[in-house]
């Protein structure tokens, strides 16, 4: 079975064992990183034999790519573009920031994409592609939302710059919080974006 077939079967078929393995893998990556994740530990977590993990996911590359693909697809389902109004765009951006805080900062975690990015040199091309697509998904959404705030004058390059700066602020702030243990670091780093509409109007 090739990698693509494994990924597709893992994400489209409803198989409790596969889901449990992927859940355990995501948890393990978030806790100790990709390199430290082992099939033996995952098997013990799920309550199956190590051979069963290999049956569903022949290699770590198969498994982590499937996990990243699922992560991307589930995140995409939650991304809804607001109405093309300035106030709606700001509310959508603030909700995005709140969601990042609740799922990453408040849980005292780094995001899955941040952890995998730190170990990118260990990843296979298929995993890296999923990782890149995930970041681009967020950048495209953020760029569209920002464009709704001042679409009358912003160039495509300016929109992309704002999207990159916002996303970099969120991920950078989560690392600062993890390193310092000070949750307020996140608020300090994102306060500007929560009032972006006023800065664009000035």
Automatic annotation (TrEMBL):
One of its GO terms (molecular function) is DNA binding. Residues 15-75 form the HTH tetR-type domain. Residues 38-57 bind DNA. The keyword Transcription regulation applies. InterPro entries: Homeodomain-like_sf, HTH_TetR, Tet_transcr_reg_TetR-rel_C_sf. It comes from the Bacteria. Pfam families: TetR_N (PF00440). Keywords: DNA-binding, Transcription, Transcription regulation. This is TetR family transcriptional regulator.
